[in-house]
Design goal:
With 702 residues, the chain is α+β, with helices and mostly antiparallel strands. The longest helix is centred in the middle third of the chain and has 20 residues, at 300-319. The protein is elongated and about 115 Å long.
Length: 702
C-alpha cells in the first residue's frame, strides 16, 4: 500500500482540471515518480506498461443524451455495439465520431419539463390559472419570483436546490434574471473560485479592476470576470480582430479542451492584438486568463436556456405552490429524503398537507379542497394492483366504516400484508380508531368478512392504548419514508425560522451547528479505557442525523438520553460512514404531550366472546389431530350459508387449524389459531350437511 501511495503521490494534480501525463510527472523537478519507480522491483517495466495503457478507456459507458445521426447505415462509417438498454451504441467517443463526419447532438429529456407541464395543468384545474396561460410569456423581472431566488427558497428548482447554491443566491441578493444566469454558470467546479469575488463586486464591496477598455465593456455584466464562452468570442473579436469564424474556432477549442487548437488560437490572438495596437505582454497575459478559463468555460446560451427553465419553475412555485408541490412530489416517487425536504418547505409556506386516506387519496399526490393529499401509491409495500383495485371499488363514493372497507375488498386483498401498511401510513385513521386498535382488530375483521355481513356486523372492536410516540413515528416512517402526521419538533418552528437551529436536511460537512430533534435510538458502548459513550439517532421534520456523544458529555446526560426525548444538540458536523454531528453539549427539551387512548375494559376476543355456549371445552393437554379444509364454491359462497357455517364454528371450538378455499378465485386463507375447530368425529357430519362432502376435507396428522 505504501508503494502504491508513493506512485500516486508522484503524479501531481493538474491545475484547473487539466490532467498531468505520466511523462510530465516523470520529468517533474521533484523526482517523486522517478524515485518511486527506481525503488520498485520491475519498476521500469511497470512504468513502460503504464505509459502504453495511458489514455486507453478503462471501461465503456453510455452518454446520457448523445445521439449520432447519419444519412447512411452507421456500420459503414464506424463500429457499433448493443448497449445495456438494447439500443445501438458507437464503439468510439465523441471526438472520433465527429472526426468521421457524423453529427452528434445532445437531446435532453428532463424530468423538470414534466413537472412544469403538470404544474400548469394542475393550476388550471384547481387554482385560478387561466387556460390560455403561456409560460414562455411570463416576465423575467417578476418580483415574487426574484424574491424567492433571493431568499434561497429554491428547493425543487432545477439546478438551484443544493444547500450551497441556495447560500450563494442569498448572498448574491438576486434581483435580476441575469444574476440567476450568472449563478448557474459560476456554481460549478472551476468558476466557483470566483463566486466570492463576483458577489463582493456585485454588492460594491470590492472595486472592479480595469483590464482594457474593450475588455472592460465585454465583462461589465459579470463585474470583470470571464464567465461565458461568448464573452471570450467577443473579446477575441474586439481585442484581437478575430472574425466570427475564428472566434468560434477558439470557443470550440475551449469547450472541447483541444490543446493543439488552443495553441494555434494563442498565436493568432497575440498577433491580432499587436496588430490592433495592444502591448504584446498584456495580450499574452489576457490570453493566459482565457486559457485558464478554457478549463471550465460555460456557454451563456446554455446557461440562459437552463436558467429560463429554472425561472419558470420558480415562477409557478411562487404563484401556484399547491400545484407545484403536487407535480414535484409525483415526479420524485421513491425519493423519500427529497420528498421530506419538499414537504417541510411546503408546510413552511403554508401549504396544507394531509396523509394518505383510503377515502380521499388517489394513486399519486393530488390536490383536493386546497390541500395536498398523499397518494396510496406512495405507501411502501403496497402493490400497484391493490391500489388500482381499491380505487376502482371506491369509485366516486367512500367507505362509511372500517368493516365496510374490509368487506368491499376482494378476498385476495383481505390480507394483513396489504392492510398493515395502510395502518402505519395513517390511511385508516379517519375511521376513528387509533393505530394500535386497527392492528389489534384487523385479523378478526378480515376473518369475519369472509363469512359475510351478518358475522362482520357482530364482530366487536376491542379498545387498546395507542402505540407509543416513537413506535408511531418509526412505523409511519417505514411506510412513507418520512413522517407526515406530525413531528414533535414542529412545536419549535420559531427556532427554525429564526435560524437558531439548522434543519437536518441542510446540514453540511465541517460546520459548527445546533440541531433540534427527537431521539429515535441510543447505542451505548465502552471505549478502550472503559468509559461509556453513545451514538444517538436524532430526527426532525426534515430528516435524521447520527450524533456522537463522547464520554465526558455522555456522563452528564446518560440518565435521561433515551428514545422519545426531545433534545437540542450543539456540535460539529463531520463525515465518517455518513454525515454525523459530534456533540459538544446536549440539552433536553419538553415534548408536546401525547394523547394516549385509555384501554377499554372490554378486552374479550370478539369471536370467543360470541362463543359463550361452547359445548366442548378444550383441555390444554390435548394436541391437534389434523387440519380442516373447507371449500366455498359458487353454490356455497352465499351469505346465508356462510352465516350458518359461522354458527357451527362458534359451537365447536377446538385445536385443529382451519383453511378456507375459494375455487372461483383460487384464494386460500388459513384462519388464525383462535378459530381452530373440534375434530373429525364431532364436526364432519354437520359440515358435510352444510357444505356437502366434496367441499369438506379433514387431513389427519401423520
Amino acid at each position: 500500500m505504501k508503494a502504491q501511495k508513493r506512485l500516486s503521490d508522484g503524479v501531481p494534480a493538474g491545475k484547473n482540471g487539466r490532467k498531468v501525463s505520466l511523462q510530465e510527472a516523470w520529468n517533474d523537478p521533484t523526482g517523486k515518480l522517478k524515485d518511486a519507480i527506481y525503488d520498485l522491483e520491475n519498476g521500469q517495466l511497470l512504468f513502460k506498461t503504464a505509459v502504453a495503457l495511458e489514455n486507453l478507456p478503462r471501461n465503456y459507458s453510455t452518454h446520457a443524451a448523445g445521439i449520432v445521426l447519419s444519412d447512411q447505415p452507421l456500420v459503414e462509417t464506424l463500429p457499433v455495439q448493443v448497449g445495456n438498454d438494447g439500443y445501438l451504441m458507437t464503439q468510439v467517443e465523441k471526438g472520433p465520431v465527429e472526426a468521421l463526419g457524423l453529427l452528434k447532438i445532445d437531446i435532453l429529456g428532463l424530468t423538470n419539463l414534466k413537472i412544469l407541464a403538470q404544474t400548469i395543468a394542475l393550476a388550471q384545474d384547481h387554482e385560478d390559472l387561466s387556460t390560455d396561460f403561456d409560460i414562455k410569456k411570463i416576465s423575467l423581472q417578476d418580483q415574487e419570483t426574484l424574491a424567492l431566488f433571493a431568499r434561497g427558497e429554491t428547493t425543487g428548482i432545477f439546478q438551484f436546490e443544493s444547500t450551497g447554491m441556495r447560500n450563494v443566491l442569498q448572498r448574491l441578493k438576486v434581483d435580476d434574471f441575469n444574476l440567476i444566469v450568472a449563478a448557474t454558470s459560476l456554481y460549478r467546479p472551476g468558476p466557483s473560485q470566483h463566486i466570492d469575488t463576483f458577489i463582493k463586486r456585485r454588492l460594491g464591496q470590492e472595486p472592479v479592476p480595469s483590464i482594457d477598455p474593450v475588455v472592460d465593456q465585454v465583462l461589465a455584466e459579470t463585474y470583470g470576470i470571464l464567465v461565458y464562452q461568448e464573452q471570450v468570442m467577443r473579446v477575441a473579436a474586439a481585442y484581437a480582430g478575430f472574425t466570427l469564424a475564428q472566434a468560434d474556432y477558439l470557443r470550440s477549442a475551449m469547450s472541447k479542451k483541444k490543446v493543439d487548437q488552443m495553441a494555434e488560437a494563442k498565436t493568432a490572438f497575440i498577433t491580432g492584438a499587436v496588430q490592433k495596437g495592444h502591448d504584446q505582454q498584456a495580450a499574452e497575459k489576457l490570453f493566459a486568463y482565457i486559457d485558464e478559463f478554457a478549463n471550465y468555460g460555460f456557454n451563456k446560451s446554455h446557461a440562459v436556456a437552463y436558467s429560463q427553465l429554472s425561472y419558470q419553475l420558480a415562477y409557478l412555485k411562487a404563484h401556484y405552490p399547491l400545484a407545484f408541490y403536487t407535480a414535484l412530489l409525483n415526479a420524485y416517487q421513491g425519493g423519500a429524503s427529497k420528498a421530506q425536504a419538499y414537504l417541510a418547505e411546503a408546510k413552511k409556506m403554508g401549504v396544507s398537507i394531509l396523509p394518505p386516506d383510503v377515502n380521499r387519496s388517489q394513486a399519486q399526490w393530488s390536490l383536493q379542497d386546497g390541500a395536498l393529499i398523499m397518494g396510496l401509491g406512495q405507501i411502501s409495500g403496497l402493490q400497484t394492483a391493490f391500489v388500482k383495485t381499491l380505487l376502482e371499488i371506491r369509485g366516486d363514493g367512500h367507505f362509511d366504516a372500517l368493516p365496510a372497507f374490509i368487506k368491499a375488498l376482494p378476498e385476495k386483498y383481505r390480507d394483513l400484508k396489504f392492510l398493515t401498511p395502510l395502518v402505519y401510513a395513517g390511511a385508516l385513521d379517519h375511521f376513528g380508531y387509533n393505530r394500535a386498535e386497527l392492528l389489534e382488530n384487523l385479523p378478526d375483521l378480515i376473518m369475519a368478512a369472509s363469512f359475510g355481513d351478518l358475522v362482520l356486523s357482530e364482530t366487536k372492536i376491542k379498545k387498546v392504548p395507542d402505540l407509543s410516540l416513537i413506535e408511531r413515528l418509526q412505523s409511519e416512517k417505514e411506510a412513507l419514508g418520512f413522517n407526515l402526521s406530525g413531528h414533535p419538533t414542529e412545536a419549535y418552528q420559531a427556532d427554525f425560522d429564526a435560524k437558531l437551529v439548522v434543519p437536518m436536511a441542510d446540514l453540511q460537512e465541517n460546520q459548527q451547528v445546533k440541531v433540534l430533534g427527537l431521539v429515535k435510538g441510543v447505542k451505548a458502548i465502552k471505549t478502550k479505557k472503559g468509559d461509556a459513550m453513545a451514538f444517538a439517532t436524532v430526527t426532525d421534520m426534515t430528516g435524521s442525523v447520527d450524533v456522537t456523544v463522547f464520554p465526558q458529555t455522555y456522563a452528564r446526560i446518560q440518565g435521561w438520553l433515551k428514545p422519545g426525548q426531545l433534545v437540542r444538540v450543539s456540535g460539529k458536523t463531520e463525515t465518517r460512514q455518513g454525515l454525523a454531528v459530534v456533540a459538544n453539549s446536549i440539552d433536553h427539551l419538553d415534548a408536546q404531550p401525547q394523547a394516549v387512548v385509555q384501554a377499554d375494559q372490554d378486552k374479550a376476543h370478539p369471536v370467543h366472546d360470541q362463543r359463550g355456549g361452547m359445548t366442548n371445552p378444550v383441555s390444554q393437554n390435548q394436541l391437534p389431530t389434523g387440519t380442516w379444509f373447507l371449500r366455498l364454491d359458487e353454490d356455497h359462497d352465499q351469505e346465508e350459508i356462510k352465516a350458518q357455517l359461522w354458527s357451527v364454528m362458534k359451537k365447536n371450538p377446538g385445536l385443529n387449524p382451519v383453511v378456507l378455499y375459494w375455487p372461483a378465485t383460487k384464494v386460500k386463507k388459513a384462519l388464525a389459531p383462535s378459530y381452530n375447530l373440534a375434530g373429525l368425529d364431532q364436526l364432519k357430519k354437520p359440515l358435510d350437511q352444510l357444505l356437502t362432502a366434496k367441499n369438506v376435507v379433514f387431513r389427519q396428522k401423520d
